[in-house]
Here is the input.
Amino acid sequence: MKKILLAIMFCFLSIFTFANDWEFGSEGEHIIPLKGSNMSIKKEKITLKLTPDGMLVNVKFTFDNPTAENKIIGFVTPESGSGGEGEGKGNRKPEPLKIKNFKTTVNGKEVKSNVELLSKLLSKGVLDNNVIKEFTEKEKNFYNYVYYFNADFKQGENVVEHNYFYTGSYGVYERDFSYVVTTISKWKNKTVEDFEIEIQPENYFVKLPYSFWKNNNKINWEIVGKGKMVTIAPTKKPNDENANGIEKFGAIYLKLDSGSVRYKTKNFSPTDDFYMVRIDNILGFDYEFPEGKVQGYKFKDNHFGFVATVRYYEYPNIIDSLKKLDDKDLDIVRNYPYALAGYDFAKKDLKDYFSQFIWYKSVGKNVKIDSSFNNLIKAADEIKAKRKK
Here is the structure.
């Protein structure tokens, strides 16, 4: 799906000094140590909380540093402009980042962050010439920014924690979020001794990765609270050109009533990165959702595609289409928009019917209905009123 905006991917931590003991490289989304590091990651906890406008991010690292020294810490994030892939900078100007409230603490002490274009930082001679050349080539087409700050690292354990908000990238049906975890392999021990990622999806229906590894071993996601979760294992190999994304890589679908979902492990060494899809328009995923019941839940029924399309008909055509339904099916179709919004049905038959869907969660009576359903609801009520006469 073509995105409306370029993605603002998550930033990953890298450390470098003016003596060039630490170099960094950007792939447009994140920052990594090119030569490796003599510092290991003992612990890492990532907490991601969804909001209507994006996501709140908290990342906490515990590093094991062999010597006490002062370092410059940098976070690189790509441009937030709307230019298409391959268009280059052209006449566009760098735009403000979509990251807000960037805050970092080192060993409990907040440090002041600076932000500027990567090209300006490169001109200060911080990096080796070969690295500067690499970034200069990248900067011909993209505006990248750098958050950076100065920090004193002690010998032994050092805790670095940063928080920020970012929008993710979004299209008509979804909002996508990614986090680069494969850079773990660039550090001294190439693994995180104690790793945890916690997702707080709130009321949103989300899709999580099935695996962090090329061999497609399953991630053991754990619900901490109450909710619905369905696992779709990959059925085809990643090199199958005729397979779609779910068939190749699998997926985890999740709708929580309360709490969070997390993955905790020891000696974490991923080969694939984290992604999450916030599914904002459930009907738009008809092509992806499986038929029938999966692990006790349905994704769609025989009304799903009908509701997705009939709402856009001219009003007389909506009437004609709905007239063909019996009273029971008409009632279901009429209430589909309410179920999608999380309406708490008083009628037991409707509540039971929609509760079988993984995406349904009762949130209350005061819900906002998508205005594109107005004519569908009006037409259904008109037909029901005539049938009562």
